[in-house]
Amino acid sequence: MVVDDFGRVINPMLIAGQVHGGIVQGVGQVLLEQCIYDDESGQLVTGSFMDYTMPRADDFPSFGLSFNEILCTTNPMGIKGAGEAGTVGALGCTMNAIVDAL
Hints:
The chain is mainly alpha-helical. It has helices at about 10-30, 85-100, and strands spanning about 1-5, 65. The chain has one domain: 2-Layer Sandwich (Aldehyde Oxidoreductase, domain 4). The chain has a two-stranded parallel ribbon with strand order 1-2. α1 packs across α2. The protein is elongated, with a radius of gyration of 17 Å. It starts with a strand and ends with a helix. The mean pLDDT is about 90.
């Protein structure tokens, strides 16, 4: 379950997609992504999507999303940004789950 505050939500479907993708990106940063360089030449070995592992949104199950609509007071529509919302929480949650499991 994910709860976010985006102020007034105009298009819930777009927000849900943004949050889902952000969570997938955050978990991927913790578990999969890494830059590997050649020891001899210093050349980046994982420089393409063929070599650099990233999860896709469809690698993850669906999860619940709820909005905590606290309207923004600095604009007439009461909206807030949603750009990196999923990524922020996913990093800490994933690392804490790993630490707890160990």
